[in-house]
Every structure is written in C-alpha cells, then in structure tokens.
Design brief:
homodimer, 505 residues, alpha/beta, seven-stranded mixed sheet
C-alpha cells in the first residue's frame, strides 16, 4: 500500500548512512521529487546517529515519486513514491504575497498578518513553552517571531534548554556540528504552531549572544542557513526572517553576506517561503526593493508613515516592532496598551500589518516578548477584535484611501477592501464626519467601532454639510464635504467607522 | 520741552498734506531718523483726510532727530527731534532669533514662543474682541496669529467689522485705496496685545476670501505689503507672517511674488521684525532656508520630526498648526486636549515651538481659532504649565538631547538648557528610567512632572541598572544605561522628568 499524506503536509523519508567523520560536512544528499513532467529538487540533511532525512511539502494532489543523489553510496539512488490527498480543512498552504501589498495562503485564502513576538520561547523550560502555546490558543495572533538561537540580553540571562550546536570534548561549541536534538525540538514547536494556524516567523540570526552563535565564520553561517532551510522548508507555516536587527551585526557580517544568506535560502527552499530582514536603527533598513526580499519587515514607531514605506518598497509592509506594550526601562518596550492598539489600527488602515510584543516588568523576568509564557497586558484582546473585524470584510486586502496621501488621509487613516470602507479616527474626535464616505447612489450603513471598548454600534447618518462656495473651496475642493451623507459621532477619540452597502435582511 | 518716549515704544509724527487725487498712490514720504552718525530710513504712510504719518521705534536711548523727504512740498524737509528714555520695565524690545534655533527680545530676555490662533478676531463685533483680550489675559499665550483680512470659510460667514479697502461710488472695493479706519482698528489691537506682552503674528495674505482681497493684482499686493509695513513696523510686538497656507494661493500668486513680498518687507521694516510663511499641504513647505526667512513656520502633525526640520532649515521651528484641539468636522481641527498637550511637550522637548488653536463646535460658530472670544478646552492650561516650567530654566534655549537623533531620542523626547535636563516620556510608561540622566559627579535632583494633571513631585532616585556585558552591549553601548543613577516611576503615560543639580537649601 502506498504511503499517503495530505497536500501541504510534510512527507519525510529517512535513510541510514555514514556516521563517521563529520557527516554534516562530508556527506551530500538531495532528493528529486517528481510528478508528471515536473521535478522538484529538495535538499536532505543529517539528523545525527547515522540518520539522514529528506522532507518534502507537496503542493499538488496525486502520486509523487522520488530518487536521491548522494556522495555516500548507501544514500545514493534511493527511490520511492507516495500519494498526496486533498489538504486537511485547516491547512490552506503556505502564505505568499498576494495583490502586491498583501498575503494569501496557497489556496487563495487571504492571510491578514497579526503577529506577536516571543524571541527565545523555545529555549525556556518546557513548562513555560506549554504555557506559551496555551496562551497563544487564547489569542488571535497568527504569526510568531521566534529565534533559532537562545538570547542573551537584559531580562534574558538564563541558559537555553538545548545547545544549538554540539559541544566538543573540551565543552566548547563546535559550529561545524549542529545539535539535532535542538533542531528537532525547534521543529516540533514550529509544527505545534502550524497546527494552531500560526505562522512561524523564524529569526535566523541575532546579535543578543554570549555563546558565540553570532560569531560563526562566513562559511559556517552559509552552512547553517542551508541546514536550517533543508530541515524546516517543508513545514507549511515557515517564514524566513534573516535576522533581528541585522544592522547591529554589520560589523562582523558585511552586506554581501546578507545578500548571500537570501540566495542560500532561495537555493534550498523549493517552496519559496516568505523572506524578510529586520532592522534595528530606523535609518538602517535593508533595501527591501531587492528581488529576493518578499516583504518589508520594519521596526518603526512612526506608523502613519506606512504608505511611505509601501511606496518605497512596493511590497507588503509588516511593521513588526511599532514598539511594545509594557513598562520596562528601554523605550522600545514601554508604550501603553492604548498606544499599541492605536498603532495597530493606524497601520492596518494604511495598508500595512503591525506586530505585537509585550514587555511588562516581572520579578523573575518572565516577559512575553522574549520568553513567552503569559500575557499581562490589554492590547492583545483589542488586536484580536481588529482582526475579527477585518476578516469579516477582507477580499483582496485593505488598501489605503487616496493612496494614503492627500488631505485628510495624512492625518486620519482609512482603507477600503471591496465594498467595505473603514476609517480610523484615532486621536481625532469630530462630532460629525464626512471624508471618505462613499458618494455613489447605493444605500450604505455605517458602524461605529469603539476600538478600545471593543463595541460596534450603528452610527447615526445625517445629511452632508454644504460645500462652502468660495475661492478657497474652489481651489481645494477635495477638502470639502465629498459625500451625500455624513455621520454624527460622540466626540471622543479612538473610534473607527465601517461603511458597507446595506445588506438584504 | 522735547518730546520724550521710552526705548522700543513708538514715536509718531503727523503732517497735513494733499488729499486730492489718490494720495495713497501719488504721494511719497520717508523719514530719516538720526542719532550720532547713524541714520535710519523709515517709510511714511497716508492715513486719510489729508493726514500723513511717520512712525519710528527707537532702539537706543538719547536724543534722535529726523527730517523728511516727500514728493509733496508740504511734507518735504520737515524735521524735529525727541528724547528716548529707558524702556518701560515690561517692554523688552522686539523678538529676534537667538542662538540659531531660539528667540530672544532685543534686551536679551529669552522668548519662549507659546502661540495661539484667532485668525479673524479683529473683524468680529467689538464685544467679542473685548472677550478675546479678556481671555488672553487669563492664559499664558505670548503670540497670536491674526489676519489683516476678514475670513470666509466654513464656520466663518459673517461680514467684517470694517472693509480693509475703501468702497467706490458703486460700492465696489477699491484696492488702490486702503481704508485707514480698518488699519487704525487693527493697530489698536496690535498695541493692546503688545501691552499684554503678546506678539502679534500678522498674517498678511490668506485664501479664505469672498471679498476679493486674495485676488488683488501683483502691483496692488506689493503696495499693500509696503503700506502694512510702513504702518505697523514701529510696533515692537509685530511678527510678519506672509500668508496662511500660501500654497493654496500659488495658482494666482506664483513663487517669485512670494520672494518679492519678503523683500518689500525687508525694504520697509528697518527693525528686522521676524518673517515667516505658513504652508497648507505638508509637502509644500516654502524653502525656509532662503535668507529672508527668519524662522520656519510649519503646519505638521508629525511633531517627532521637529529635529528633522531644525536640521533641514537651520532656523527656529515654530509648528503653528500641529492640529487643533476641538471636535469640528475637518481633521486638522478635532484632536483631543490630551493629544495637543502631548504634541506641545514633544515639540518643546525636541527644540521647537508649537502653536495652539481651539476648534470646538459652537451653535453660533463662535470658535476661538478664527473668532476668538472664549476658550472651552483643556489644553491651554497645560500649555501655560509647560511655559512656566520652561521659563524657570531657560537660558539660551532648550536643545534636543543627542541632536534628537539616535536611540532612544527618536522614540522619547529630551532637551537640555544649561544645567537643566528635561525628558518627556509621553506615550511611554517605564517603571524605571535612566537614559539621558546626567552622569558627571555632581549631585542631582529629579522632579516628576505630570503633564496633564499639572503636578510636580520629587522622583525617587535608585541605582542605575548594570550594563549587560555581552556582544550586543558592546556594539551598541549607547543603548545601555549611561548614568550612575536611575529613577523609579509610577508606570503611567504623559510624564516628564526634570533633572537639576541640587540647589543649596
């Protein structure tokens, strides 16, 4: 009987091979997966104890067969076949760029990115990792930023659960020998996230290090990228994030290395998972226009500039660090829940995607942003509320009204997707509002959304104010009432409007 | 007995001259005011009914004499002299640029600009104008933006108190004949402000017009600028603002005219009063680097960019429209009092000066921003509080810490003047803080300022956290604790810190 797996799940086959010398360096292995006239090259990897593996994520139903090529005779010329069935209902396939500034799963389901951050959660005690998964199950985050390496940083001084590389006889880390146990654990957590519908945004390098991982040689880095890609590429929910704050590593890893890391991923990931890179200094963005970058990953508090970044890069904007809700000392980690909620709405209503993190001071330094565990804040619920509202209307992705330029859209935020218009007023508190309301002859209803209290009520529709017929009005007509109707508002901040055509009851 | 006036007060002398024809166009008059070897040329003006006037603001004590030159024989060769005494205690002289990014009166007293806006207050009924002055006396605003011409705009549809030009036999405005009554009234209000220590930031042109003032010919505009300068230049508290939203007038008044307006002011104002020009579209700033612009007048909500503007223009930054507190329909006029207070603090703590306006919806459209009258909001008291705090410490002007660039000063705001350091945390709510605290060996005390509740209490000083001695710490040492002490904070937003050396009790 043929083995069978569902489309976008992972097919894995293992082989016994040589274990002497250093198989990580000495042995090559590739698989060639074929269906009809199509063949996909897939890199294999050494998993320790003489075991080599090939992993493959099929993107088409039906029978696939494979053969292997290897420098080791016992791994060379192996072959087999398996059947691919329809995807499981909750697996929509890997996320890709869609409609230039947005994302969708491979089956076309729009993916609205609502990420959070637990940099080193897979390196905490297992009981803490369970807590993290339990917490994530209660939230509506669908992307998690997480590092392969452990983290050494203020509030992060504990030793990791596993060494990521093996130790030699002297107890020194040997950066030519990955530790399979560590990678297996990491992969299990990536899978656990995938089963929950959460994308694993895998941070491959970072500078917060006391063990030496950030100081591997150029060659070791390249091998590391290839190894990681070979092991993890077949997981449907993987995103590649080359680094956190890559610019703080530029003193030892110059720019050509970063370009090369991207290429190594492309060479070893036949599925084309999303690829991005994250800056520290807001002036040090990597050039996200480069062809191998799929979307711009931004760290920037000035979220009203989202349209500027869309225009600069022509790609989806994921602002993963618009600062974190919390109260710790560093100023990237101590904004209020109200402010982070505000920044999520502004970003979303200007055609971008924001990311969450939480950094509340804790007596044992158990802080969500790095270690996971429990959430203590108030933004995450509001972010879930925003996601639910956007999901109700998403078709191709919310595009900023007026390109986000022009009056009044530099001041307030508004976006449209299909027949739905949403306007986020934020720090503005008008008692009437008219800009951006549709002016065709269909009948509309307007919902008033309280973004903090998470309520949705009908807004009162009133006649639009008269256009003021003077010279100034003639010059800047776009500044004048531009719709046949207006709405009456309660005159308080942090409200949004949702405008939709009246639904047949 | 010689007439005598105080330094920086206004000396005025009038002459009977021709009243036939059009003396505004036909008769030239200049005065030459001399003390020792110095002679100052001062333009005269026609005030109607055959009366011509010369006004002069002496900037030096002692005897001055003058002679006149005129195209009319009865005005030519007149002369006289007068004595100038020490200035009145509350007249510190006109405000000038000081220390590149700041202002000071002519006697050296620092001028911290805290402006507000009543565009058309001098065109309202006199009882409303009295209310405006009465309100201003209760506030601590020291600059008022006010237009020469009446205003036609939403919420502003009433006829003005006076025509600014005379009407001809057919009732049409004659833009070759200014209406002296209108100008005399305007001047009286400028003087009333001066007596209260308030700078009159005189807006010479604007596009909100139904009477035709914004459509005068190029020649008429040039004559208007010269006339206004001749009449008003001798008031110590005058600032020249060429236009409100000049870019909305570019279709009929091209750029070379705006440059020429500046030059006409310079030719007719021997005192060098401050000169600026105000934009509508944030992308349409006039090039404030031009030599004849004394300071950059900005309309922009994105106040954390204040340092960027300082660097771009190299002049004082007066952000007169960081949006207004209110609740009217247009989004420049409906931010919360909290948000405007926040923007004032951010601007001030990045080395700029913000401006206030209030736009609360009113059943009779009596809105402070255009008509003056009464204030209904909550920002003005907080702005007064900020001014008082800054005045306590000002010496040469508050300069942004770290030039405002670099971490964490792109996120939070901090400034120093002399031995005083102030840090505004805004939307940040750390429970401890260390960045920017001085690290020399003097003894410091720290005040905790609640910017909304307007309280000042002693902050608890605690030891600085340890520097985290890892690779990342080594790369970006400036991101680490940089002082020997830190402060404990209550973990709420909108707080500021003031750090001063311990005063001898």
């Amino acid at each position: 009987m043929t083995q069978s797996i569902a489309k976008w799940d992972m097919f894995e086959v293992s082989f016994a091979g040589p274990s002497d010398g250093n198989p990580f360096l000495d042995v090559t292995l590739e698989g060639f997966f074929t269906q009809y006239a199509r063949t996909v090259r897939v890199p294999g990897f050494y998993d320790g104890n003489g075991t080599f593996r090939l992993r493959f994520m099929p993107d088409n139903e039906g029978v696939w067969s494979f053969t292997t090529k290897s420098s080791a005779s016992e791994l060379d010329g192996q072959s087999g076949s398996f059947a691919v069935t329809a995807p499981r209902p909750d697996n929509h396939g890997p996320v890709q760029v869609a409609n230039r500034y947005h994302f969708a799963h491979a089956d076309g389901t729009p993916f609205l990115s609502f990420g959070t951050t637990c940099y080193a959660w897979t390196h905490q005690p297992l009981s803490e990792q369970d807590k993290t998964l339990h917490t994530l199950a209660r939230t509506r985050f669908n992307k998690l930023r997480m590092g392969v390496f452990p983290k050494d940083y203020p509030y992060n001084v504990n030793e990791p659960l596993h060494d990521v590389y093996q130790r030699d006889a002297d107890g020194e880390l040997d950066f030519d020998r990955p530790n399979p146990e560590s990678f297996r654990h990491f992969e299990n957590q990536v899978k656990a996230l995938g089963d929950m519908g959460i994308q694993a945004d895998i941070i491959m390098l970072h500078p917060y290090d006391r063990w030496g991982y950030s100081g591997m040689s150029e060659t070791q880095d390249y091998r590391y990228f290839a190894y990681l890609t070979a092991r993890l590429g077949a997981y449907h929910n993987v995103w590649w994030s080359l680094a956190n704050e890559y610019d703080f590593l530029l003193d030892t890893k110059p720019m050509h290395q970063w370009d090369r890391y991207f290429h190594i991923i492309e060479e070893n990931d036949p599925y084309g998972h999303l690829r991005s890179i994250h800056n520290g200094d807001p002036e040090a963005n990597y050039d996200h226009r480069k062809a191998w970058v799929t979307h711009a990953c931004i760290q920037n508090w000035d979220v009203k500039r989202t349209v500027e970044w869309r225009n600069a890069y022509g790609k989806p904007i994921v602002n993963d660090e618009p600062e974190y809700e919390g109260n710790i000392n560093p100023s990237w980690g101590n904004i209020t829940a109200e402010e982070l909620t505000h920044r999520f709405w502004i970003t979303a209503m200007r055609g971008g995607y924001a990311g969450h993190g939480e950094t509340y001071s804790h007596p044992e330094d158990l802080i969500w942003w790095a270690k996971g565990g429990e959430l203590h804040g108030q933004a995450w619920q509001r972010i879930a509320f925003l996601r639910s509202i956007m999901e109700e209307s998403v078709s191709t992705g919310f595009e900023p009204i007026n390109g986000g330029a022009g009056w009044p859209w530099s001041r307030v935020s508004g976006a449209r997707d299909g027949d739905t218009t949403m306007i986020y007023l934020g720090e503005h508190q008008p008692v009437t509002w008219v800009s951006g309301l549709p002016q065709d002859d269909r009948k509309y209803e307007v919902d008033l959304i309280d973004t903090w209290n998470m309520t949705i009520t009908a807004a009162k529709i009133i006649p639009a104010p008269e256009n003021h017929p003077t010279r100034h009005g003639a010059i800047v007509r776009q500044r004048k009432p531009d719709a046949a109707f207006a709405v009456e508002l309660p005159g308080k901040p942090y409200l949004a409007l949702r405008v939709r055509t009246v639904r047949k009851g």
